[in-house]
Write a structure and sequence with these properties.
This is DUF2683 family protein. The protein is an all-alpha fold and 68 residues long. Helices cover 41% and strands 0% of the residues.
Amino acid sequence: MTVLAVTPKNKRELLMVEKFLEAFNVKFEPIEMEDKPYNPEFVAKILQGDEDFKNGKSIKIALEDLWK
């Protein structure tokens, strides 16, 4: 199965795409990307990492030791 990402420029284009898919009995699921472009669990991990770094809960590795 292949997933297609379609980005209509406006509501009229969105309506036209939806009608087209319905006419061909193609299953689709609208997802609002403006509201939540990232997975909330992922965002929480990133924010927690930033907070840990600010609180000194991090490890510094010298660049020359990175691949050891």
